[in-house]
Amino acid sequence: MTTTSPWALSGLPASRAECEALDAADPLAPLRARFALPPGTIYLDGNSLGPLPADTAARVNDAIERQWGRDLIRSWNSAGWVDLPVRLGARLAPLIGAQADEVAVADSTSVNLFKLLSAALRMRAGRRLILSERGNFPTDLYIAQGLIEQLGERPGGGRFRLELVERGELPQALAQARERHEAGKGELAVAMLTQVDYRTGSMLDMARVTAGIHAAGGLALWDLAHSAGAFPVRLNQAGADLAVGCGYKYLNGGPGAPAFLYVARRLQAGFAQPLSGWMGHAAPFAFETGYRPADGVARFLCGTPPVLSMVALEAGIDTLLAAEPFGGLAAIRAKSLALTRLFAQRALALCERHGLRCVTPVDDAARGSQASFKLPDGDMAYAVVQALIARGVIGDFRSPDILRFGFAPMYLRHVDAWDAAEALGEVLASREWDRAEFRTRAAVT
Ligand SMILES: *Cc1c(COP(=O)(O)O)cnc(C)c1O
């Protein structure tokens, strides 16, 4: 069979034995032991729920039995519980290219989006436009819609508005916004963009897009859900204003882990956020009647931190930091690109004749840490993913028709990419997916 796939690259391993050799020479190989992975599983869903790090259970158990059980309320001070949001923010900061005092860990990504979007709209008074992508993760769009609803009719008339464009139309939309800005009629308040598209894995050039947003007079709010912990993010270098991201994806913080937010230092003093809870107060334990925001990023906190979840997230962040002596996120990025390239190429070689198409960019600079595919029919795509999961190859399905496979190189090997592609090939060739049990949709896909 001749293939025209752009993924038919040369220089990739052509056998499982070659993959084994690459793994034997892999400097990141020792890091796999830092995870408690179930045997017989190839886990390609760390982009949705990172696996359990090997020492999380012991650390959470210590927080329960010693810090909570024995030391009781004293632990707010003695174990530093009260500082967890800013302490974890500082620890996470270098992984996303930020200063230690620009990041805090709190709430969920959705709630943090609400806080930052709201603050951004106040900062850009007079401007009414939030720009985002039609394909952005729904919660991002829902939060913007809810905030606009809440803010209602503006003094002087009119409302805020959410404009959605396709990813490919962004440069054009920003150029138009720039023209209006330069003509003194600037409307863009904030552009809210997710760096890596959750469905396709396509990655935006953060520095270039941020420059385009600034040229139009807007603020750049980045969602790093599929970036943080997957590759080096350079918020400061890109000139990013605001960012949010998840704790439970590539940061391996556990189900429902707290999220993070970033506010560039230069903006912090001028920002007011709407969830003015006591943990964001300048002096929470003075119990004053009036709200006074804390200096710095702490003003973006709201209520009491979920300590046990924070401790689990701390273990997840420390697991990533353990990669530093092995080359850190730069080495993780290089291996991730190699794994997604290998998997996509091998999967297409085996499955193009069954209608499999890759929707992830072949260009390294335009690809996050996943490989996503389409099949001719969404129900079939769903069933194929379920059949793979039954074989212990865990990826996920994203409506309407995407098969998604995330690659986290701290615990994945070249042989895993190879074997997963083989499994996909077998599932399609044998029509193993075509069974009622694999077609029934669960509540969480
Ligand atoms: C996963 C994800 C979220 C999740 O938000 P939560 O509030 O944690 O549920 C938000 N945005 C993007 C882009 C995501 O991929």
Question: How does this model look, in words?
Answer:
This protein has 445 residues and is of the alpha/beta class. The radius of gyration is 23 Å and the shape is globular. The longest helix is centred in the C-terminal third of the chain and has 24 residues, at 328-351. Strands 2-8-7-6-5-3-4 form a seven-stranded mixed sheet, with helices on both faces. Strands 9-10-13-12 form a four-stranded antiparallel sheet, with helices on one face. The protein has a two-stranded parallel sheet with strand order 1-11. It folds into two domains: 16-28 and 329-439, Alpha-Beta Complex (Aspartate Aminotransferase, domain 1); 59-320, Aspartate Aminotransferase, domain 2. It has 15 helices and 13 strands.
Bound ligands, named by name, code or SMILES:
pyridoxal-5'-phosphate
How confident overall, as mean pLDDT?
Answer: 96
**Which strand-content bin applies to the residues?**
5-15%
Number of strands: 13
Oligomer: single chain
H-E order:
HEHHHEHEHEHEHEHEEHHHEEHEEEHH
Rg (CA only): 23 Å
At the fourth level of CATH, the homologous superfamily of the largest domain is Type I PLP-dependent aspartate aminotransferase-like (Major domain)
